[in-house]
């Protein structure tokens, strides 16, 4: 009985270990081959098949300026099939994020097509987007999309002939076109009962269960504990957290000031700019009115 109580206390203590955020770790720590297993775990859980990362690729988009406060992260990897995987982690709201997703995939494809290469060398791209803001409207925290060619009149899906499969070295059009994953971290509010949900719990709350069996999370527990970092890494991480809090406060202050100015001086162009951006981002009219002070009728006419 005494031993069981000791084990329970040990588990409680372990469960309160402080783990660093995945977005910061991906950019600053998990860059060595020994750490690929963490990325492989997350990606494998999403695509529902084992993924082996051969290397992390650097691109121009990975090079961030020192004053970039939003910590846009690009993880660019190649799996054992030669397919390219992009993982982007975005903290701040971008109203044109869907367009940026498309551009990112197009850029990756062209970057890896050297002049003179045949089109058969085009590699499939997986675009995984981990977002800490609410993109669009929906009830789920994970969205997945890929191109399916469907008959306009008969409703059948276009398939390849045996000759085409052998010649192109692909089984289906699905093996060619990109796949997109959008993870809306803030929308996750479930108990973690499977590997995907365990990963979501970590992404949202920096919590990793002591007895986790989710691919990559056991290794994350060993590598991403706050106390295991050097004092320099801890200071850099603490500064990053402070920046996140400060940026959030600045945004809230700007919105509040816009509302107060609108009440005192009537409608301002600033109100309308904010309303246009929120409307383009498909926020509800009620929410836009709450943030800007505009009436719903005014918002509808924008």
Overall pLDDT metric: 81
Subunit arrangement of the protein: single chain
Outline the low-pLDDT stretches.
1-15, 59-71
Q: Write out the strand line-up for the largest beta sheet, numbering strands in chain order.
A: 1-2-3-4-6-5
Topology of this protein?
Blueprint: H1 2-15, H2 22-28, H3 36-47, E1 53-56, E2 73-79, E3 84-90, H4 97-111, E4 125-131, E5 142-146, H5 162-168, E6 179-184, H6 195-205, H7 217-223, H8 231-265, H9 269-280, H10 285-292, H11 296-301
Parallel strand pairs: 3-4, 4-6
Antiparallel strand pairs: 1-2, 2-3, 5-6
Helix pairs in contact: 3-7, 9-10
Brief sketch in words of this structure:
With 302 residues, this protein is an alpha/beta fold. It has eleven helices and six strands. The chain starts with a helix and ends with a helix.
Label this structure with key terms.
alpha/beta, 6 strands, 6-stranded mixed β-sheet, 11 helices, globular
Task: Describe what this molecule looks like in 3D.
This protein has 302 residues and is of the alpha/beta class. 44% of the residues lie in helices and 12% in strands. It has a six-stranded mixed sheet, sandwiched between helices. α4 (97-111) links the parallel β3 and β4. α9 runs antiparallel to α10. It starts with a helix and ends with a helix.
């Amino acid at each position: 009985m005494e031993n069981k109580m000791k084990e329970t206390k040990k588990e409680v203590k372990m469960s309160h270990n402080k783990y660093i955020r995945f977005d910061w770790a991906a950019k600053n720590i998990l860059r060595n081959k020994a750490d690929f297993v963490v990325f492989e775990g997350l990606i494998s859980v999403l695509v529902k098949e084992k993924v082996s990362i051969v290397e992390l690729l650097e691109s121009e988009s990975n090079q961030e300026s020192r004053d970039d406060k939003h910590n846009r992260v690009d993880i660019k990897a190649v799996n054992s099939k030669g397919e390219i995987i992009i993982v982007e982690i975005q903290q701040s709201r971008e109203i044109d994020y869907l367009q940026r997703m498309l551009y990112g995939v197009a850029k990756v494809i062209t970057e890896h097509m050297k002049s003179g290469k045949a089109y058969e060398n085009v590699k499939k791209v997986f675009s995984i987007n981990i977002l800490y803001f609410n993109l669009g409207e929906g009830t789920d925290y994970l969205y997945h999309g890929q191109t399916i060619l469907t008959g306009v009149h008969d409703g059948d899906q276009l398939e390849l002939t045996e000759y085409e499969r052998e010649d192109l070295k692909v089984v289906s059009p699905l093996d060619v076109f990109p796949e997109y994953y959008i993870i809306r971290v803030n929308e996750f509010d479930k108990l973690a009962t499977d590997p995907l949900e365990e990963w979501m719990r970590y992404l949202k709350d920096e919590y990793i269960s002591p007895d986790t069996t989710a691919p990559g999370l056991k290794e994350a527990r060993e590598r991403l504990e706050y106390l295991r970092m050097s004092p320099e890494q801890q200071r850099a991480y603490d500064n990053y957290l402070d920046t996140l809090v400060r940026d959030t406060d600045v945004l809230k202050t700007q919105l509040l000031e816009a509302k107060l100015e609108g009440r005192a001086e009537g409608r301002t162009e600033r109100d309308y700019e904010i309303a246009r951006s929120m409307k383009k981002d498909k926020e509800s009219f009620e929410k836009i009115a709450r943030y800007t002070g505009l009436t719903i009728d005014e918002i509808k006419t924008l």
